[in-house]
Every structure is written in structure tokens, then in C-alpha cells.
Amino acid sequence: MDCRSRHYRIARQDNCSSRQIRYNKEIMNRPIKQIKQIKQQGKLLRIFWQALAVATVVVSVKFVLHRLGWEPIEQSSLHNSVISSVTFVIGFLLSATIADYKESERIPAEFAALLEDMYDDAAAIHQSYPVFDLDGFRRQLHAVAQGFSSDVRHSAYDARQDIRGLTPYFATMEQGNVPPNFIVKLKQQQTVLLRHRHRVDYIQRIRFIPSASILARSIVVALLGLLLITNIDPFVASLTVVGLISFVLVYMIILIHVISTPFHKAGKTRDDVSLFLIHDAEEYLSDPSDAASK
Description:
Helix content is 81%, strand content 1%. By secondary structure, it is mainly α. It has a two-stranded parallel ribbon with strand order 1-2. The protein starts with a helix and ends with a helix. The model is unreliable at 33-38 (pLDDT under 50).
């Protein structure tokens, strides 16, 4: 009984010490988690704070100019027309940019679905026609998924070679007398993968009507300058109106700049298109032994 009680006390002490260690780790990691949450919130509100800072500067300059009496232009109906025109141009540019952004959101889902479907089809073909290396085909699809993630985040990497690396497996299937309709379907899916890669690369590199972007920024600056030297009564209301107009227009200009490049470097912004579906496809196509070890 003494030995059993001694072993029980030792086991209990070990359990208490392990719980204390886990508790201490949680206490130590809590500030790190809070810092990460603050950083994520900062990224989420990054455009808001930038637009707010510019609007604050504009309101401050407006206050100084009013005190100095440098407001030679009187308010008229022409100001309303100018503000409406600027808003129309900004809205047109934003709607066109959002169209490309929404298309970029669909591409990762379609790309991941194609990769998984190609592997499922190849596995079904391999059961009846074991004439090609199914494991090698899976590894190549996994390389395509990794290459696509690297390509959209870093323009220095080219995923086209990874996609074209599937072609030798199709040649092996043809030599092994696999029915042509099976091979044709896989080749068509390969072409769609290549098309998605080219489309993302085009959206990343090419801005929608660069001249329109220059025009939008120019007229926003001109409008803010016009509001600064316009005498608007009452003065307190004029500060509110100028600050609000400045905030909205600057926010839209920054937003257009951000979403015109849907895929940023990981962690740079919260407004970029997520690639979690591509990462899910990577896990699906990973080596079963590696998945078991994890």
C-alpha cells in the first residue's frame, strides 16, 4: 500500500506540474495572441485610418485658410456639379475594378476544384489502366498548387512550367492505350488551369485604364483644393462637409488602388483574395505518409 500511495503521489505531482507548465505557456502566449489580433485589426482598418488622416489634414488646412481669410471663391451651384462629376468618375472606376476583383475571387475555387477533379479522374483511370505513375501525377498536381500560390503572391515565380509538367503523363497514357476521351478531358482541364494562371497574371500586372486612374486622382486633388479656398457658411458646417467629402473620396481612391491588385504578399493586407482553397487542395494532394505523420 505504501508503494502504491507513493506512486500515486508522484503521478499526481507530475500531473500538477504538467498543468502548471501548460498554464504558464498560455499566460506567456496571451500577449502574443493579443498583439496578433491588434495587427489584424490594424490591417483591416488600414484604409480607414489613412483616409481619416488625409481628411484631418484637409480640415486643418481649411481652418487655417479661413482664419487667414484666404477663401476668395463663394459657394455656388457649380460646386454641386463638380462634386457630382468627381463622384461619378470615381464610382465608374471603382465598379470596373471590383468586377476584376470578383473574378479573382472565383479563380482559386475553380483552380482547386480542377486539381482535385484531375487527381480523382486519374485515380479512377489508373484502376483500369495502371500504365502511368499515379503517385508521380499526384506529386505534379501538388507542385501545380504550390506553384500557383507562389506565382500569384510573387511575380518572380512562373507556374506555367508546373502546369505543363502534366503533359508527359498524358503521353504515357496514350502509349498505354487509355481511351482518348479520358485523356482529352484531362488535357482540357490542363488548358483551363493555364487559362486561370494567365488571367490572374494579367489582372495582377495590368491596371484598368491607367489614364482613368490618373484622371480620378487629379480631379480629387482639384476638388479638395477648390473646397479649401471656397467660403462656405456657416463655418463649422463647412468643416464637417469638407472633412466628410475628403474622407469618402480619399477612401475610394485608396480602395481602388488596393483591389486593383487582388493578390498581395501574405500578411500585407486583409483585402486581398484568400488562397485557403488552394492550400486545402495542397493538403488533399499531399503524400499520405506525410499527412499521417502530421
